[in-house]
Specification:
Number of domains: 2
Strand content: 15-25%
Strand order of the largest sheet: 2-3-13-11-12-5-4-14
Largest sheet: 8 strands, antiparallel, barrel
Helix content: 10-25%
Number of strands: 16
CATH class of the largest domain: Mainly Beta
CATH topology of the largest domain: Cyclophilin
Amino acid sequence: MCPGQNLRRPPAPPAGSARAGRMATAAWTAACTAACAVALCPAAATADPAPGRTMADVLAASTPADWRPLDPAHTLYLELDAGRVVIELAPAFAPAHAANILKLARQGYFDGLGIVRVQDNFVVQWGDPEGRRPLGAARATLPPEFTVPISDRLPFTPLPDVDGYAPQVGFSGGFPAARDPKSGQAWLAHCYAMVGAGRGDDVESGNGGELYVVIGHAPRQLDGNIALVGRVVQGMERLAALPRGGPNMGFYEQAAQHVPIRRVRVAADLPEAGRARLEVLRTDTATFEALVEARRNRRDAWYKRPAGYIDLCNVPIPVRAQ
């Protein structure tokens, strides 16, 4: 008899009914075995649950409303010999920096400059290494914009897991972000492909004329210490594969090593035919929440043990051609 069950053996059959008796006993044994399976291992009584969705499944089921086009007024094209790098600015988090960078781009400030630093597992950086190029109508100094006040204009989709650098992390307007309800402040996070404005020791010394992109493991210790101004949405392979610089923090030792920048343009200033027609997965939808869960607990055939956790910088933000 199985624990917790009350299955009675069938009564003995009439004389001469041996075959019927054997059938009744077999049926009783099968019933008892099934009852034991339910009692001792309830999962055995039901079919295996359907596997969770993969990221590919989530994206395949997405609708046009789950995607948003890039705003051409806040999209930059960094043109290299190797091709185009598309950068989406984040004016909601760094409005003064975004405005200044747009001015610099429209004045042709970056044209003919070069990438001067490629530090392995850290950043790619470009700008005027001598600091001699005139800024024109752009400002020479800007307020820090390391953090901004939490407000309704900053939508925030939190992640379910704890973070070592901030009380809350998640996504805001397509960018990895963090916030602290006690201080009432929010900020962007240094994840792969994020773009920041270089500065000196003076917190107001960054003006957007010197920019960097994260190409390695997320240096989250920089969060709240420097202004992040956007994210590369296409062309990261053209930056991450560049030759590494020298031992002095990855700066190239010779000017001849600099990677030339042909030009930087604002997408809105180009004709439609010259724009990259891209759209980004929105981060304020149920589809995005499903994507996070698909990456948090991988159900791809190769995975055997779901992690049950995801780091902010391990959540991909898909981009596709329109």
